[in-house]
Amino acid sequence: MAGLADSGSNPDVDLLYDINGLAKDAPGWFDRVMEYVGEYGLLLAIVLLVVWCWWSVRRRGDEDAASTVAALVWAPLAAGIAVLVNVPIRGFVERPRPFLDHQGLEVLVQGKTDYSFVSDHATIVMAMAVGLFVAHRRFGLVALVLALFGGFIRVYMGVHYPTDVVGGFALGTAVALLLSPLAMALLTPVVKAVERSPRVGWLVRARGRADGDDAVIPEARSERTSERDLAA
Description:
By secondary structure, the protein is an all-alpha fold. It has helices spanning 11-25, 28-60, 65-93, 98-101, 120-135, 137-156, 162-178, 180-196, 213-216, 218-231.
């Protein structure tokens, strides 16, 4: 794809310079923090949210724990599939990184030689955030906010145009949502089988919760047995 114009005739370039200009005005230590957060921090935070959600679901042991855990498994799988889908898109569009076509950008990460559209980072974080939202609304909303912030940081760092990020958001969302019914149909029976396993069932429900209320409150079982004996 041909480089975008340097003038103000292109809003994508205008927004790139406006957002990246914040990096020029910020102190060096702040840019280093943003660099780390944009490259690793936000992705790690969303992964930790998925793990936290899984831990919360298995401890609570609700009846729909298996379907929720299946949705949580789908979140990273959706991200991986979205990145694979992005490989031919990048090769077809062949859009250079913005700092190769435009002067005066504050580039916080050096060595980026691959194509710019679509942003892999934006694709991954949004696919995982949407997948988490499908599994659990509260955790998913937090992840969506983090994903949006991550997209902003990629432009702030000078390594992506705003439309690269928007394209990544769209791709990640499309893969996570459109393939979700098929993924759940395949993953839910597998997770339910794991739930019934005496060895690895704890991955879906905490020990003592897999067999329903009787397993959680053994005293209730004893009381019902005593009542039946008295009735006899």
